[in-house]
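I have a small job for you when you get a moment. Would you make up a two-line entry for one protein for me to read? No commentary is needed, just the two lines. Write everything out right here, beneath this request.
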Amino acid sequence: MKTERIDSEGLNLKDKVIFINRVAKVVKGGRRFSFSALVAVGNEDGIVGIGKGRATEVPNAIKKAVDQARRRLMRFPLKDGTIPHGITGRYGSTSVIMNPARKGTGLIAGGAVRIVFEVAGIHDIVAKALGSHNPFNAARATLSGFSNLKDHDTVLKLRGKFEEVTAPKGS
């Protein structure tokens, strides 16, 4: 994913835990437990990032994940609380199909995908995760879809049509 570097200073970021996993390592004398946490961070206005942290205690794992997510922020276009167009994000064997929805539809998505939408500031969307429902891959597939979103003006500039559309009629 090609993304611009966004500084998290000055942004009012909200974080949500997506998933916490307990891992046991069997050693002589018993088991050693460690935890991994997946966290989504966003400003609820088109900036979002995810991070994974691992530690021997849950709060430390969450803190590490939040720090990583703040370093990996990305911006994507929003249009009236939804995305500008339908898109499919892919990561590993997970695909997330995202379609814009009318105002008042709400968040129709499940699991990790829904939490990423919440912190990103999307209020109306219809999404479906296909393939693996692994929360790590589902969150990354969602961000993959976000990175491919383009707003209306960007598409017009890419096609060289911007001057024609903005010029007044009759001139």
